[in-house]
Amino acid sequence: MRTTLSKRQRGVETPSQRSRLTAQREAAAANRDWHERRVQAAEKRAAEAREEKRKAGPQGGRLRALARLAEQLGVESPVTRAAVQKVDRDRRGRQRPHRNADRDRTLRGKARIRARKAARR
Question: Please, what is the average pLDDT of the chain?
Answer without folding.
Answer: 82
